Amino acid sequence: MEQGFNVREAIGWMRENWHASFLFAVAYVILIFGGQYLMKEKRGYKLRMPLALWSLGLALFSAIGTHRTWKHMVSILTTVGFKQSVCNQIFYVDPICRLWVYLFTLSKVLELGDTVFIVLRKQKLIFLHWYHHVLTLIYSWYCYKEMLSGGSWFITINLTIHTAMYSYYTVRAVGFQLPRWIAMAITLSQILQMAIGIILCILLIFWKEDEVCLFTWPGVSFSFLMYLSYLVLFCNFFSKSYLMTTQKLKGE
């Protein structure tokens, strides 16, 4: 499948159709808030097994994608160095990972299904959750169609964290209780991802005169503002979920 994948067609399709990501985003917002309204007077569904299978599928997908993308990244880092790993566009067309990069981009539509489980189970839907899903979908499609520099790190780190995150969701869905520090570690890794994203954007600005880097102000601005908003929101989430609750427990 990897060898037979036509990356030229994939990139061409994305360049013609990436605006569909906005349609998916709008449909998603209407569906989840409409679903919340319809569920207002109903009892939430348990959906333990469907959620476990859903999370397991995304965990396995992320694990395979992590293996393939890191294989390419390690090769680049050990041969031509860090700067090239950030700037190069080979990542999008490399035989090792090109299929998984494309599938990663498409998977951002599939991941919108996470919120459907939250709505049907009548769990709390926070702004960070749906905002993150919407913006990541649009950004991923934009990043792929432009073959933006820095996308290699964005995709590789995201797949790595999602492997741990969806594995955690799978175990929780089947009923196992896990130590609090695991959830904290996953959120901290997401905060670290956002900080790395901001740093990479700053590096791209410094390297904009270098012909090796594909630099566009719209692309870097989009990336920087997205990562900055994520960093603020995830730090706020970590503070409210773990630091404030710990202080309350100590106070009690």
Q: Strand count, sense and closure of the main sheet?
A: none
Structural class, by secondary structure, is: mainly alpha
Helix proportion range = over 70%
DSSP strand tally: 0
Gyration radius, rounded = 19 Å
* Proportion in β-strands: under 5%
The number of helical segments is 10
Protein architecture, described:
By secondary structure, this protein is mainly alpha-helical. It has a domain at 7-177. It has helices at 7-17, 20-38, 48-79, 82-87, 98-110, 113-120, 127-146, 151-173, 180-206, 217-251. Helix 2 packs antiparallel against helix 7, helix 8 (151-173) runs antiparallel to helix 9 (180-206) and helix 9 packs antiparallel against helix 10.
Describe the secondary-structure layout.
Elements: H1 7-17, H2 20-38, H3 48-79, H4 82-87, H5 98-110, H6 113-120, H7 127-146, H8 151-173, H9 180-206, H10 217-251
List keywords for this structure.
252 residues, mainly alpha, 10 helices, 77% helix
Short précis:
One of its GO terms (cellular component) is endoplasmic reticulum membrane. The protein has 252 residues and is mostly helical. The chain is built from ten helices and no strands.
